[in-house]
Here is the input.
Amino acid sequence: MTKGPYVINSNFVKYETEEDGTHINFETYRHIQNKQFVMTGYDHKFKWTGSIPPVISSKLQSVKDHIIKGEEGQYDAIRLELKKPIFYNEFAMIHIQALLDDTNKQSQPYVEFRVDYPIQMLHFRVILKHKTSEFKTPAILKRKKINHQIGGQAYAEIKSVSFNRDCKTYEYHLIEPEIGYFYRLEWEK
Here is the structure.
């Protein structure tokens, strides 16, 4: 089953705060398979909940244009140009890095994926360098149906994810998540 011009086989995300807790490095690697004749670009969709716009770059692609703001309740997007075209059924690794500034404390403490086609794995890695050695509150993995995107249904808790105090990290691999849900790892800010 495919949805659109490509399929995401796996998605790896790293959310890492600096010591001040307000500057964040967000990185995503996506392993995709092209499902069109030739693919030269990729539209990366995201939603930053902070009020200061992110600074976006990529180690593997060229970032084109500016952030395209989505309507209320929709994702924003940024266009990436591939360094070389990929043909039907070929694979590529997509990389996005966003430097986030939350000095006004407006962002929400979660990372979320939308799963609307089969995907092998979602990998969550959240590094909170600003937390003290006493911090031990677990994160919660949650989900809700995609068709309840705005209002309506609340997120249902799936699993508690423990905090590794030595590494100041939450890490979780969600293997073959059920299709038709938003999956969110949420922690205490």
